[in-house]
Every structure is written in C-alpha cells, then in structure tokens.
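Hi R.,

Here's the input for the adenosine monophosphate complex you asked about:
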Amino acid sequence: MDYREEMKQLRDTLNENARLYYTLDASTMSDYEYDRLYRRLQDLERQHPEEITPDSPTQRVGDQTLNDFAEVMHPVPLESLEDVFDGDEVRAFLQKVRETLPQAAYSVEPKVDGLSVALEYRNGVFYQGATRGNGRVGEDVTENLRTIRSIPKTLPEKLPRLIVRGEVYMARSVFEEINERLELEGKTLMANPRNAAAGSLRQKDPRICAQRRLDIAVFNLQLAEGRDFATHTESIAYLREQGFPTIPHALLSDADDILREIDRLGDTRMTFPFDIDGAVVKLNDLSDRDILGSTAKCPKWAVAYKYPPEQKATKLKNIVVQVGRTGVLTPKAELEPVRLAGTTVTYATLHNQDYITQKDIRIGDTVIVQKAGEIIPEIVEVVRQERPAGTKPYCLPTVCPVCGAPVARDADGAAIRCTGAECPAQLLRNLTHFAGRNAMDIDGLGPAVLQQLVEAGLVANAADLYDLSVQDMARLERMGEKSAQNAVNAIAKSKENDLWRLIYALGIRQVGEKAAKVIAAHFGSYDDFASASMEELVAIDDIGEVTAEYIRAWVNSPQSQDLMARLKAAGVNMVCKEERLDNRFAGMTFVLTGALERFTRDEAGEMIEKRGGKSSGSVSKKTTYVVAGENAGSKLRKAQELHIPVLTEEEFLDLLK
Ligand code: AMP
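And here is the predicted structure with adenosine monophosphate in place:
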C-alpha cells in the first residue's frame, strides 16, 4: 500500500475510535491495538512530515468533550505520556535523558487504567474537580467527584491553592458486583472498569455517580502555593500525609532494575484493586523535569510502557456449559492450567456458539490463550497442526444442562437460552422480575432479599412467596420485625393486582407489559388465556406467531400449570378487573370480517370483550357468530360451509343494545 493511503487509513481508524472512546465511552478496539496503530502513524509522519494533516490524532492532546459540563481551565496542563512497547525503547529513553542528566533517578509506578482528573483545593477545602479534556480545558465534574469517598474534602494543611492530579477508577470488585446486579435486572453490562468509571463520572445526576462507588489514586502534585518540593517522592509523601490515596512507586536508577520493576508490576497486576494498562517511568527530580521540558503533547521526562497482552499455548480439555441468570447458555473452555499475566489460568471464555464455530474450536485442540488486563482470558486461535485425530466440531447441547428443558436460540441474536419456566439457574432473576415494580409490584422484595430467601431454601418459585410468614422474613439479614411485617403485607396486597400484572410477571418470553395488558383485556381471565389456541392468540394485534408459540409452550408446561394452580390456591387474582359491562356474550366467540362501517374491528372486538365475549381471527366450529361487513371473503364462505350464523352490522348492533 502507498504510504499516503496507509496514513489516511490510520487517521480515519484512529479518529473514529477516539471519538467513540472519549465521547461515548464505547470502544471498538483494544487500547493496546489503538496505541500500536497510533505509533505506526507517528513513525510514518516522522518519515513524511509533509504529509501530516491537522486532523491527525497526533496533533491533538485529548479529544473533544461532549460539552454537557462547564469548562475548566487547567493552570498546569494535564499532559499525555509517550508510549513505549518494549525494553529497548525504555533503554533508549533512559539513554536520551542520561545525555543531559547523567545521575537521574526514576520513579517506576503502575499506570492506572482509569480517567485522569485534576482536583483543586482552596485554603484546604475541596473547591473544584475537572476531567482532563484536551489537557488545557476539561469538564467540571465537581459534584460527581464529591461523591467519591477516597477524595478528601478538607486537608490538614490549608494552603491557599493546591492542585493534584489523579486517576479515577472503579475497583475491579465493585465493577463485578455492579455487573452482576445489572445482569440480574436484565440490563446491558458495562464493558470494563475504565468505561464504567468514565461513564459514571459523566453522569448528570451525582446520585448515580455515588452508587458507582468510584475511587481515586493520586499520582502528581500539579501546583502548591506556598510549598516547595525537590522531588516527586517528597511531593507524593506530602500528598499522602494530606490524606490522598497515592499510587505506590519504586525509586530506581539502573536500567536493568527499572526493567525488572516494570516486569514485576506486570506480573502482579492482578493484586492491585484497579486495572493497570502499563507502567510509568518518570524522572524523580522536579527541577530536572523542568530542564527537559515537554513537546506539544508529552513531557520529555517520562514514558509509559504498555504491556502486551500475554499469550500462551495450552490444551483445551473440555467445554463446560453454564446457565446464566438470564437463562443464556455460556460455554467455557476448561484448559490445562497455564501461567498467564501473573495468574494461573484454567478457564477461558468462549462467548457463544458462533464464536466457537467461527474459530472451529474443538475439545482436544491446542489453543492460544490471551489475557489483556481482563479478568477472564480468551482464546485467540486454534493451533491447527496440533489437532489430534478424531475431533468433532463442537455444538452446544439442545437441552438445558441445569434443568433439562429444551433450549432455543434468540430470534434476534447469537444467544441460546433455556426455556425452562423454573430452571434453578434462572430462579433469582425470574423472582426479581415477578416482584418488580412493573410486574407484581411487591415493595421490599428487591434482589438482595430474594437472594437470601432462595439461599435459605425458603423460596423455590413465585408461589412460595405467598407462603412466607413474618417469622420467615424476620430471619433474614438486616430485616427487622417491622420490615418483615411490611414485606409480608406487600406480598398479600399483590394478590389483588389486576390480571395484566400477573401475566407480565410470569416472564413469558416476548410478553412485555403492553402485550400483557392486551392479553388481559382480550381474554378477561387467566384460564381463558391459557386455553387459547394458536389461531386465537395470533388473531390478537401485537401478538405474532413467535410470541404465540412462546405462550403456548409456557402455559402447557407442567411446571407452569403447577405454579398457576398454587397461585390460584393462594388467592392471587386471575381475572381482568377492567370494567366489564355485562356478561351477555360469556362463552361466545365472534369473528369479524369485511369492512365494518361504524367502527374498526378493534373497537368491535373491545365491545365484545366488555360484554364477556371473545373475538377471534379465524372461523371454526367453535365460532358463535360471524359479523360480516362489505366485501367479506373467505371467512364468510367458511362460515356458510360450517353453518355458522352470519350477522350484518345492524344485527350485531342490535345484540349490543
Ligand atoms: P495516555 O492516556 O495513554 O496518554 O496515558 C497517560 C495517562 O495515564 C495520563 O492521562 C494519566 O491520567 C494516566 N496515568 C495513570 N497512572 C499514571 C501514573 N502513575 N503516572 C502518570 N500518569 C498516569
């Protein structure tokens, strides 16, 4: 490829990715890959400086902000760091510095993968905090930063003005906990702790940011009026005394020692509460830093070493399938244990069937695994030459490995799901949905309480909730007598709910709130709904064939029938309370066909339902009347064949009177 063409492609790819990364907190490539491409562009620009364009990512410090927050000027710029990718590049950097400063000492520290912010204190009080933005102007996120507990709000020493720089991050443990909760609630998961931290800090409502439990690690003193420090070490020690959590660092001079420390940090990265994406090597002496100065973007006195994702070959012993709380079957590769990025790896994620098929991953294969800072490693590729004889392409099971119910592939995605109504793997999620605000709306039965009820063996399906006593509830953690009583009252109250809530609460696939309301109004009782044929279901607007099939499968399963019988016995309301005029059409089924003059078919259907009847889309022996308007076609013929009485619009109106 022509170098001009390559440079253009690199600019486009990097710009698009940076835009996603900075403005939407989403990303399409790994940070490592981004840095590699960036470096390739830099090299080409060095060789062909005449080809540097103003839109090149190398000509900017950060990227544009979303402009939702007020701007804050940084009196001391928040600079970027020059990346290096191997030991030789670190040595080259050290050599370059040595030419000017033969005796230099360096701080070597983990590069926290979070979000850079500046915190300003006036007279010892937290005054303002801002994101890096483009390095000179950032976004005012003071209110969100106030919610971070590890940021001191007042300092022991009241300097007139103090600015520190730190990295806001979400601890890995918090990240996992929040994702677990999101999964329970059926919401989209956060991609990684960095995105999670960035997204949280940009929330318009500080209360949301507070729930995300962010942390900070401070790594630089930007400005301190009335204080002088000679070295980085001294300034960091001072900040620690002032109550800031600081990034730990080693003080070293020898190149070999520095490289060893970089390796050590890489090997122990999983022991830090935060993700790290590299190590930073920076001059310790602050006046030496001034001597070297900065380029347009980066200081010349520091570099960031980026860890490559470590890869190793190992054997895939088996593929095990887990069932998540949403019922999705997730295949996992069981590996011959292998040391990777400081931990022993025995499992790798396989995502889904498509992923396995695409890479043709088979049990018995030798595979290359990689860990790039994520918690779970992944399989990069299969070593084809080492495939033993007799292996077979892998297919996920056709029944749920937990409950044995058939599995079904999502109509709109790669996920394969268990269809079991009471699959233990899905129990907690189903219960959370059942009790949720838009479903049975049971106050005081959130995921945490439900989890305890399941773990204590008190609840194995939704019907069990109605057998709970105040004593049962009071045995749970953090549940006083009073809240136990309230919860039991709330459960009892939910028995009076209108039918649509119950139908929605059952969690039948594709039956959302709206469909549940339509169903409740149409059938008037759970029993009529449960005995409806495919044709009757499909005849309802909003219900397609796929949904109808899910409904039929659900209501016909013995587990569901059991559950409904118990709910009924517990006194849960099973009829539509929506106002009904009378019952004159009870047991009758109408079919509307042709063009009606005075009302639409939907309106006519509603009038029938309000009088206890049903309207259906197809004529059968069970049809009581066919109401035929202008140009009625096949349904009218069928009615005549089956000798079913046919009404004109007038005759139908007479029945309504
Ligand atoms: P980059 O964004 O790749 O240019 O890397 C520079 C960023 O690394 C800075 O914006 C800092 O916020 C961040 N960083 C994380 N840890 C450190 C550290 N220990 N020293 C300096 N910068 C750090």
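One thing worth noting: The chain has a mean pLDDT of 88.

Cheers,
M.
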